[in-house]
């Protein structure tokens, strides 16, 4: 279902879909996940437009807060 949403965005935008790591370390938080994604975005040169669904929404908020651009 979400793939259909992403395809809709991909018609007009360049879309990257990030997933969390498979083996989460103990005490790994949404803040840690947000940091991982923000660092990946920096490597890719991405600076705008983060959308999160479900737990991804919490991660997107964490990215938006300290990494405002």
Task: Walk me through what this model shows.
- This protein starts with a helix and ends in a 5-residue tail after the last helix.
- The model has no long low-confidence stretch (mean pLDDT 78).
- The chain has one domain (2-64).
- It contains 3 helices and no strands.
- It is mainly alpha-helical.
- Helix 2 crosses helix 3 (55-64).
- It has helices at residues 2-10, 30-44, 55-64.
Distance between the termini: 30 Å
Shape: globular
On the 0 to 100 scale, the average pLDDT is 78
**Could you say which structural class the secondary elements and strand pairing correspond to?**
mainly alpha
Give the low-confidence spans.
Answer: none
| Biggest pleated-sheet summary | none
Order of helices and strands: HHH
Q: Share of helix among residues?
A: 40-55%
Rg (CA only): 12 Å
Count of DSSP E strands?
Answer: 0
What share of residues are in beta strands? Answer: under 5%
Q: How many domain modules?
A: 1
Count of discrete alpha- or pi-helical segments spanning 4 or more residues: 3
């Amino acid at each position: 279902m979400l793939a259909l949403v992403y395809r809709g965005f991909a018609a007009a935008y360049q879309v990257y879909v990030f997933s969390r790591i498979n083996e989460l370390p103990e005490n790994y938080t949404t803040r840690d996940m947000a940091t991982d994604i923000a660092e990946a975005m920096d490597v890719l040169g991405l600076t705008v437009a983060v959308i999160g669904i479900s737990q991804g929404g919490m991660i997107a908020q964490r990215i938006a807060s300290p990494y405002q651009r």
